Structure formats: structure tokens, C-alpha cells
Fold:
Amino acid sequence: MLGFSRRVRLACCGSALIAGVLLIAGCASGRVMIAPEPPANFERLGRATGTGTGSLGIGGSAEYVIPMWLNGRVQRAYDDAVASVPGATGLIDVTLKENWYWWILGTARTVTITGEAIREVQ
Amino acid sequence: MKAVGTFTTIGIAVLGCLLVGCSGTPIRLGSADQYSGPRDIDANTGRNIKASASGFQLLLLIPININDRQERAYQSLLAQAAGDYVTNIAVEESWTWAFVGTVYRTTLTATAYRRAAGWGRPAPQTGRVSGSTIAPTSLSEMCSTTNMVDRAECHGRIRSGMTIDHVTEELGKPSDISADGTVLRYDDRFIKFDSNNRLIGISERPPQ
Structure:
């Protein structure tokens, strides 16, 4: 039978371990293909631009560790850029840029993807 | 009263620094000949390349190597490609809490293909031969040439498919423009555009 103080210690260690794993696992965007090999035949549709914004905000303490839409910002920017030109299926000549700003309770980062929208033709 | 003035000045200075220092360096992705038709590449030589660069944001406010990390990662990726054809570029952004700030990391992955023999221009020198090995060299060293057009092309700042506006944006005002407006001359380099104002070639002689 474990004593009360030992159980508390184990619970704290377990919580810290889980928090650590979550921090490590939950802080990556995943790989986003933003400049794939274009199809053999395509039609150029014009310039496309898309943005994706996310923040790292204040947590329960004075530290800022809560991601808010942060990890998916690159994918959203790419999807937004493709969707900005009707009929587009992809982008070529892609440019990637990131800006950030501080908003007191956190830092926001905006990814902007620009390129030329294309549509594959047979 | 004096203290209020001091605080106001500091506040304005901090806000100014925040506004100025929060813009990342844009990077253009892909090989210069990626969109100009069939590629002379050896499809059997595709290899995965990967590069990353990090920056640190101290206390949410102070950027340390943050704004250019994507460019550094891309330059590192190109150095690994060593002049090969680069395509299928993917990006992964990650962050790690570091108690007094946050580490941001950009990782780029791509596929590099060797050029087929006889492709366009001579292959760029990508390293220094030392005995039986080739020491790696930086992209800026690899692209060190006095000709601004060659240098811009080597760095990927001008490429096939770009418009005249984009090219003049990168290179400035040309020395000369052809009567029909499809050829720009920069010293001894001629940049040819098609009827849609897209860059289709760079040569040392006036195009026929």
C-alpha cells in the first residue's frame, strides 16, 4: 500500500511526464507540401495568395505555452492560396514568408504563401 | 512629469522595434527550370534532402535568429542539392517551450535529381577538391560571380516563367530593351521573354 505523500509524488511525476510528452508531440505542424512537382501539362491561372495565422498564448501561469491554431498555419496558408483562384489545383513559383506580432497575451505568427495558380490539363 | 515622458518615449521605442522587427525574409522555392517544360533530369537519381534552422523568441518579444530561419534552412537545402534539380519541397514548422522563451524550428525536405548529361550550362562548381574528396562550400561562395544576372540566376532569384516586372524588380533597370520589349539587356547578358512576358532564356548573345 502506497503512502499518501508517495502517491502525490507519483501523480506529480506522471502529470509532468504527460505534459512533457504533449509539449513535444503537439508542437509540430506536420509536413506540408508547398512546392510539389508540377504536372506535365498545366494552365497558368494567375497570382494566388493565402495566409494562415496562429498564436502561442499565455497559459495558467506567466509562461506562454498554449498553441492556438499555431500548428496548422502553413497548411491553411497553402489551402487559402489555392482556393483564392477559382479552378486552381496547385501552385508553382511559390514564395513563403512569415510575420509575427506580439499581442500582450501571446505572439501571433502569420504565414503567407504566394505563387502562381495552375490547373492541370490533359 | 519627467518620468511620464520617459515612459512614453520607452513605450514608443518598444512599439517601433516590435513593428520593424517582426517581418520574416520571404523565400522563393524550387529550381529555376522547374516550370519551363520537360526537365533533363535523371529520374533514377532522386534522393531525399533535408535541412532545418532554428530561432529563439525570448520572452515572446525579442527575436533571436527568428526572422531569417526559413531562408537559412532553404540555403542549407540548396547547398545539399549542390546544383541538382530540386522539387517536392515540404515545410514543417515546430516549436519547443524553453521556459524563458520559445525555440522555433523550420525543417524543409525535398527531392533532388541529378541533371542529365549535357543539360544547359556547365554544372556549377559546388566544392573544393582536396585530395580525393570534395569539401562543401557555401552557396554565396558557389554563386560568387561578377555578373549580376548569373549571380541572381544561381541564387534562384530569377528563373524561367518569371514576368518582366519580377525580373526588373530583382535586377533593376536594364541597360537596354529591344524594340518589341521581349529582350532585356543587362551588360553582356540578354534575357528573353515570350509573348506572355514570361522569361524563357538567358544568353550571352542577342537572341535571334
The mean pLDDT of chain A is 82. Chain A has two helices and five strands.
